[in-house]
Amino acid sequence: MPKTTMMRRLGVVWLLALVGLANPVHASTISGQIEVKVADESSAARAPAVTEAVDALLIQLTGRDGVVDLPVAAGIREQASRYLQGYSYRHGPAPGVTEPDASAEQTWLNARFDVSALRDRLVRRGVEVWPERRPRVLLWMAIERGAERRFGDPQTDAQWHQTLQDEAAKRGVQLLLPLLDLEDRQALQPADVAAGFAQPIQAASVRYAPDRIVSVRLNDGRGERMTSRWTLMSDEAVQQRWRITDANLDATVQQSVKQLVEPLRRDLAFLPDLFASGRLQIAVTGIDGLSTHDRIRERLASVAGVERVTTLAVDGDRVRFGLAITTPAEAVREAIERDNRLLADGEQYRWQSGR
């Protein structure tokens, strides 16, 4: 079969797969829904719970614990009902508790807020916010007990994984877990993760298209207190290493999530230009399948000033993307051209898969 014919057929096949990808995945955006404990279903109990919920959402939108101490947050709390779009109650255990005892029954308020209005209020007061797509951090975990080293397992080590994901989500960060399938295990060994070797970890992470990668080595995760060694990296360089000694699970998770969120905020949080909204179309060649398309789309979405990326057309290995932008088009193009995997080629870009 001629190569051009094969590529056209491939384009048709995975263009059909893209139908479900035209809108951002719900989990990748901040929904505006917050659940907090409430004494009962009375209006008197609801008011302080709504205030607590809106504070939690402001932290999600900014990744910044101290945002609740700013004057703009005080103003939002005073007008919290203005941003409240709806609420409901739930009776039961805390989220994530699957086998509670009878004493764990609680009343929970599920509040839904207008995220766009809250983002605008923060930005107008000069507070940087996350892009609409939450930052994605891929977590590789190695457990070390004596001479034994193994990958952290979502089932065996569920408490670790869930606690880390929950703590990251409180700050608006989506923590991804690798599949640990055959492809992952051929590309990476637990010893690589335990040592924080950047090159093999970065290579194994490409398929997940994260914004950042974090690896952690846990010593004897069965004990109440443990030592952990962490490495935070981009797809090109190690950004930070740290160690937490003789700490329990909660203290380790809180310290480590704080350590990884701060560099993320410096790199990704920004002030959208609320008055310069526009659209930009770019074409990228060298796309040989759906996984490459997804990787490029994620990279484009992470560029400062890009709010949303939509696939407009596929022609063989060439894809045309539509970008909703909040900064001048020239600034966005300059940012794209700083990506060493997107090579400017006349009026379009070529994906450099080997870099």
What this model shows, in words?
There is one protein chain. With 355 residues, this protein is an alpha+beta fold. 37% of the residues lie in helices and 28% in strands. The chain is built from twelve helices and 14 strands. The strands form three sheets. Strands 4, 5, 6, 7, 8 and 9 form a six-stranded mixed β-sheet that branches. Strand 4 (136-145) and strand 5 (148-151) form a beta hairpin. Helix 2 runs antiparallel to helix 3 (71-78) and helix 6 packs across helix 10. The longest helix is centred in the first third of the chain and has 20 residues, at 43-62. 33% of the residues are buried.
Largest sheet composition? 6 strands, mixed
Q: What assembly state would you assign to the polypeptide chains in this entry?
A: single chain
Helix and strand pattern = HEHHHEEHEEHEHHHEEEHEHEEHEE
* Count of alpha and pi helical runs: 12
Unreliable stretches (pLDDT < 50, length at least 5) are 1-26
Task: Please state roughly what percent of the residues sit in beta strands, choosing from under 5%, 5-15%, 15-25%, 25-35%, 35-45% or over 45%.
Answer: 25-35%
Rounded mean pLDDT is 85
The radius of gyration over CA amounts to 22 Å
Give the helix proportion (percent range). 25-40%
Number of distinct beta strands: 14
Q: Write down the overall geometry.
A: globular
Task: Quote the distance from N terminus to C terminus.
Answer: 29 Å
Structural class: alpha+beta
